[in-house]
Amino acid sequence: MATLSMVSGPVATSSLPLSTRRRASSVSLPAPKGGIGHGGLRIECIRIGGVEIPNHKRVECSLQYIHGIGRNRSRQILLDLSFDNKVTKDLSEEEVITLRKEVTKYMIEGDLKRFNRVAIERMKEIRCYKGIRHKLGLPVRGQRTKNNCRTLKGKRASVAKKKSASSSDE
To answer: How far from each other are the two terminal CA atoms of the chain, in whole angstroms?
Structure first.
């Protein structure tokens, strides 16, 4: 029987035949007309408000990836700037800059989360009804707790059943 010897170390690419060598993946693609690009490379996402919004969706939908901007606010931003609702990758540099300036006017991302956290801490501190509910980990907005809200209350604690009166007579 013939045995094959296996090389246990890494194989240099120069020792491989030409057909198995991989080519370098630094292919320069031309930038789309009017789109954002640098040196022929296409940027996948635009960064607005500290969030990378998708390039392949319309501006109205892609703005909703920012915490604090929903459907109505994204529409309002587009109306204020009088932009068309086009695909994000088709925005020019000037449009992206004006969009960033408009978004910074609103409370978004970290500032909004911090504001909400401080408001909840204040309610807990002054011991108002909503603060007590937050502290106990129960629903805050008046939902029923007899059957639902398992997410907040946690797993069910089993309660021992009472013995019936007929079984104690025997």
So the answer is: 84
